[in-house]
UniProtKB/TrEMBL annotation:
<keyword id="KW-0441">Lipid A biosynthesis</keyword>
<comment type="pathway">
    <text>Glycolipid biosynthesis; lipid IV(A) biosynthesis; lipid IV(A) from (3R)-3-hydroxytetradecanoyl-[acyl-carrier-protein] and UDP-N-acetyl-alpha-D-glucosamine: step 6/6.</text>
</comment>
<keyword id="KW-0418">Kinase</keyword>
<keyword id="KW-0808">Transferase</keyword>
<protein>
    <recommendedName>
        <fullName>Tetraacyldisaccharide 4'-kinase</fullName>
        <ecNumber>2.7.1.130</ecNumber>
    </recommendedName>
</protein>
<keyword id="KW-0444">Lipid biosynthesis</keyword>
<dbReference type="InterPro" id="IPR027417">
    <property type="entry name" value="P-loop_NTPase"/>
</dbReference>
<keyword id="KW-0443">Lipid metabolism</keyword>
<dbReference type="GO" id="GO:0005524">
    <property type="term" value="F:ATP binding"/>
</dbReference>
<dbReference type="GO" id="GO:0009029">
    <property type="term" value="F:lipid-A 4'-kinase activity"/>
</dbReference>
<keyword id="KW-0547">Nucleotide-binding</keyword>
<dbReference type="InterPro" id="IPR003758">
    <property type="entry name" value="LpxK"/>
</dbReference>
<dbReference type="GO" id="GO:0005886">
    <property type="term" value="C:plasma membrane"/>
</dbReference>
<dbReference type="GO" id="GO:0009244">
    <property type="term" value="P:lipopolysaccharide core region biosynthetic process"/>
</dbReference>
<comment type="similarity">
    <text>Belongs to the LpxK family.</text>
</comment>
<feature type="binding site">
    <location>
        <begin position="37"/>
        <end position="44"/>
    </location>
    <ligand>
        <name>ATP</name>
    </ligand>
</feature>
<comment type="function">
    <text>Transfers the gamma-phosphate of ATP to the 4'-position of a tetraacyldisaccharide 1-phosphate intermediate (termed DS-1-P) to form tetraacyldisaccharide 1,4'-bis-phosphate (lipid IVA).</text>
</comment>
Length: 347
């Protein structure tokens, strides 16, 4: 450990120790999805996939999220279930709730999503609001929860980018690690995302021999436009594209774009969680025209924010976005929900 990492490590250790002493436990099972690095491993698509699988298996999932950069402190519902009409109405806004919670709310129409920095408080808020209206067993899905010490988790799923697992293997602020790598011993399930990195799988086996390792990938389900019209993925094969995004790992987006598009003539990367302005969209549209491109193409997360800058005087056109799914082998989901039903740790 270098002297530049040491102050962060001291602060991290004190924070962890303090919050573990105050850790609370929700009355329902909690599945955490997290990582050990900052951003870019695909937690949001994974959270969506596990919530959808929970519904298929007869559970009523509730997602707990801090809603990064959302102005509302919470606890508050980002989206209420159609089956819980007695609850108060809401307005989805990335500025209020954060872009990722709003994305999840749009994809998961009948799943409750609660924004609150204290996920225990958010969970109890949800239970006090919906217990009279839910007839299915409730489970909580903790978004970005591996370092949320305040709340006990029944299953800790850790996602690791197979293309760039740990960067330079240094702690913040000179590297991407939120924690030392030996903290991966706490994980119950590893998921290597984006590519089948066998060397990484072997390394994880050395760090935590008892924890199963699964591989996942991200597949484009469909192409969408601003008005909700759907297009087949094959539509872009012979098109000229100008791509842009504001996510933690723009290279992974570009890898997907190049695999489905005819000619990517331009690309612009903004910082993660970037809030677009009308000026930004005008500039991108001009670049698209200069390079003789057919479409602007972006991510679902970015489109959440772009939709919100439209009004009667400013209409965004010619922008498409990719709807991407987290895909993992069925054994991964079987292990999660069998462990939940048995009340045991995954083995």
């Amino acid at each position: 450990m270098t002297f530049l990492e040491f102050p962060y490590y001291i602060g991290y250790s004190l924070d962890k120790c303090c919050k573990l002493k105050q850790q609370k436990r929700l009355p329902n099972k909690v599945i955490s999805i997290g990582n050990i690095t900052v951003g870019g491993t695909g937690k949001t698509p994974a959270t969506i996939a596990i919530a959808e699988e929970a519904k298929r298996r007869g559970f009523s999932p509730i997602i707990l999220t801090r809603g990064y950069r959302g102005k509302v402190k919470g606890p508050v519902f980002v989206q209420q279930s159609r089956d819980t009409s007695p609850l108060h109405p809401f307005t989805s806004s990335s500025r209020l709730y954060g872009d990722e919670p709003v994305l999840m709310a749009e994809r998961l129409k009948d799943v409750l999503i609660v924004k609150c920095a204290d996920r225990y408080e958010g969970g109890m808020f949800a239970l006090s609001s919906i217990h009279r209206f839910s007839h299915l067993p409730i489970i909580f899905i903790l978004d970005d929860g591996f370092q949320h010490w305040r709340l006990y988790r029944d299953i800790d799923i850790v996602l690791i980018d197979g293309l760039n697992p740990f960067g330079n293997r240094r702690l913040l602020p000179i590297g991407p690690l939120r924690e030392p790598l030996n903290e991966l011993k706490r994980a119950d399930i590893f998921v290597v995302t984006k590519t089948k990195n066998k060397a990484l799988s072997d390394e994880l086996g050395n760090i935590n021999p008892d924890t199963p390792v699964y591989f996942s990938e991200y597949r484009v389900r469909k192409i969408m436009d601003m008005d909700g019209n759907e297009y087949p993925v094959e539509m872009l094969k012979d098109k000229n594209i100008y791509a842009f995004c504001g996510i933690a790992n723009p290279d992974s987006f570009m890898q997907i774009v190049r695999s489905i598009c005819g000619d990517v003539r331009g690309f612009k990367a903004y910082r993660d969680h970037y809030l677009y302005s009308q000026k930004d969209i005008i500039h991108l549209t001009q670049q698209c025209k200069v390079l003789n491109c057919d479409f602007l193409l972006t991510t679902e997360k970015d489109m959440v924010k772009i939709k919100e800058i439209q009004n009667s005087k400013f209409r965004v056109q010619n922008i498409l976005y990719l709807e991407v799914d987290f895909c993992a082998e069925s054994e991964f989901f079987d292990l999660i929900f069998k462990s939940i039903l048995k009340g045991t740790k995954p083995l």
